[in-house]
Amino acid sequence: MFFRAAWSLALRKGGPGIRQMHSPGSAAHSKEKMPPYTNYHAQRSYPMPDEPFCTELTAEQRALKEKEKGSWTQLSHDEKVALYRLQFHETFAEMNRRSNEWKTVMGCVFFFFGFTALMIWWQRIYVFPQKPVTLTDEWKARQLQRVLDMKGNPVQGLASRWDYEKKEWKK
Question: Can you tell me where the transmembrane regions are (predicted)?
Fold first, then answer.
């Protein structure tokens, strides 16, 4: 957890190898940001970002910021929430809530399982050759009967388990 906080701090400070944002009309190494973008970055391991979430305020928001400088007991609950939302993007409860990304991942997994099953089915029908004759049940039965007729390995093998008088397997 400490490593993540240190890494996010290093990224925010513009550590080595990090590209800085610049507007098309300014120099590439200036510290100015383009208007719609900010360096706002809050996460559970580093909950207090260096700058507020909203940097460009409307007239109502500026009036609320002026009212904030007075007594907080005069502020309503909605105004306090609005002030919080100017400073921070999410609460801890919103940061900690579960996402529904697992549904997308499982959907992709099942899609690729289905696609793979269709490919295997298609290959068995159109690509792979027919089974050889030696794998049919009829051929296997004839081969077993041939081994028994020749009395192959009568001491410990297959022929030792066959009763030749009753024509059935020994029990």
Answer: 104-122
